[in-house]
Write a structure and sequence with these properties.
Chain lengths: ~60, ~400
Amino acid sequence: MKIRVDQDKCQGHARCYGLAPELFDIDDYGTSSVVGDGTVPPELEERALLAIANCPEYAIEEVD
Amino acid sequence: MAQTQPVSSWATDFDVLDREYVSSPFEIWDELRQKCPIAQTDRRGRNWLPTRYEDVTAIAHDIGHFSSLEVAVIPFEGEEPDEPVLPYGLPPISSDPPLHTWTRRLLLPWFSHRRVAGYEELTRNLCRRLIAGFADAGRADAAAGYAQQIPVRVIAHILGVPEDLSDTFTEWVRDVLEFADDAERRIHGMESLVNYFVAEVGRRKEEPGDDLISELLQVEMDGKPLEESIVMGAAALVLIAGIDTTWSAIGSSLWHLATHPDDRRRLIEDTEVWPLAIEELLRAYSPVTMARIVTKDVEFAGCPMKSGDRVLMNFPAANRDPEVFENADTVVIDRMHNRHVAFGSGIHRCAGSNLARMELRVALEEWLSAIPDFRLAEDAEVTWAGGQVRGPRQLPVVFP
């Protein structure tokens, strides 16, 4: 599984970071980005799906 | 809050200061969502009140038609001065791009999750000190004696202003937000705040510290320092927006836990549930409604909105929309799918959301650790404030 954050949509709610801090990094302005290239280790896939389902801006998506 | 005229129809004559609405708006929203999802009223000017998630978030994102130049839910009915001290209001909340964009970037780093982690110990010690003051008494006012005391002191620390002025700050902010329909109190609150920050800015110019006000005074834009009215407006915003809102969320959450022992026990026994629980409490008891001003005539979801109309961004109702949330009117303490918009949606997402979330979590952790078992006192009344910010103002609880 691989995910990405659309930074034009991200408004800094930080919900992804709250649910899966291993998968996201947030800068000083609140904008989220994926850690590394966005590849999700199998044991964190459930958390990644949770982050996608909780983003109020629909800014996170699965890419493959 | 003054008593209002009885509401003849919630669809066409709503009043967000109606006492029934303030203490329990949930059934009214449910009915509106089904029959007339965007209500209207001619009380205090022409206002619209969306209740569906889809409408509230669409309006929040349409900054071309819906401006943030006025965000007060209750319009100011006094006279505006010819030369206001704060010509830009309280940027970035009361501004549109481009002013919004760069003023917001100045504030955001102060509330980043890394910076907020640095305020946690201070918050925790403060909560412990407050609890120690009433733990032996077996009863407390969880709103006025606890929730209300926390955010104001953390904000005072960030602004570098004295903590012992907390009661005064709280009074001014309540005058501005909670008693907004009383023009005299509102003017008094706003003038007091503005005068205070005019003096503070003067003092920081002479003796800069490592606080937000001092740092903003050192910022240069295009080789020139910021206009002082921008610094004062932003500082006043941090105080106004950072106090009432979070204390209301803490108070509502404690009200919930006082009345729902199963959720209380779950939080005490299951630390894993906390991240979900905090978001669920924020969803179900979202305190904040902000306004937008219609910039040009537009038909939105069949509603003929006219330039100058006010739209009340009903984030609390959006968060209870059954189209988006299963069992929307029930607190599901481990709710997994929760795209709530308690902190707004779009470019005006609450700049202090990381701070608010930390304060709420720490306030509940410390309360439950010291007072795991508590309930509403039977001999005293719970009172609620509403309008811009909804939350309990008096929350008498007893504990063994």
